[in-house]
Design a protein that fits this description.
The protein is built from four helices and nine strands, in the order ββαββββαβααββ. It has 170 residues and is α+β, with helices and mostly antiparallel strands. The model has no long low-confidence stretch (mean pLDDT 90).
């Protein structure tokens, strides 16, 4: 990683169980490390940053902070956010890291911020898990794309219209 940080975005799934992830990956000793510590120490009502774990007492590496974009609306929404979505992010980070950081301990120098959307109307834990897994990998891959890869993506989309799942322009 020659740049000080990598920014990515990933979207997967449809309807209320879709996932939207934003990622910022950088070195602990850089600006992302400072943002990581500040974010962890600055919870707000409805938005409590927490470390992503493979299972209790086993955090993923690189150290990953989960920040929910949607305030927790009810018990079920909380369970899906802290359970299925968090597990999907853990799977996505671990899958990506296993390809990106090939030497044991290499990922320990990095931290990852994830901003995660879980719709308060989500109702399928397996779909939430799967979509967050795929969206996390997509965001991290996009963030690490070379300038040539990024240019190819933009050229492929040139002439098209901007859109997202909530707005499609004709």
């Amino acid at each position: 990683m020659s740049e000080s940080f990598e920014v990515g975005e990933g979207f997967a799934g449809e309807g209320p169980n879709a996932a939207h992830i934003n990622t910022v990956l950088g070195k602990k000793s850089g600006p992302v490390g400072g943002a990581f510590v500040t974010t962890l120490g600055s919870p707000q009502v409805g938005h409590i940053p927490f470390l992503v774990v493979w299972k209790p007492n086993v955090p993923v590496t690189p150290a990953t902070l989960f920040v929910n974009k949607a305030a927790i609306a009810n018990d079920r929404h909380g369970e899906l956010t802290w359970g299925a979505a968090q597990a999907g992010v853990a799977h996505g980070v671990t899958e990506y890291a296993s390809r990106r950081f090939v030497e044991i301990g290499q990922s320990d120098a990095f931290v990852l911020l994830t901003a995660v959307w879980v719709n308060p109307e989500a109702d399928d834990a397996e779909a939430v898990y799967r979509n967050n897994h795929h969206a996390t990998v997509a965001a991290l891959e996009q963030g690490s794309a070379s300038p040539t890869q990024s240019l190819a993506i933009l050229e492929h989309l040139a002439g098209g219209q901007p859109s997202n799942p909530y707005f499609i322009r004709g």
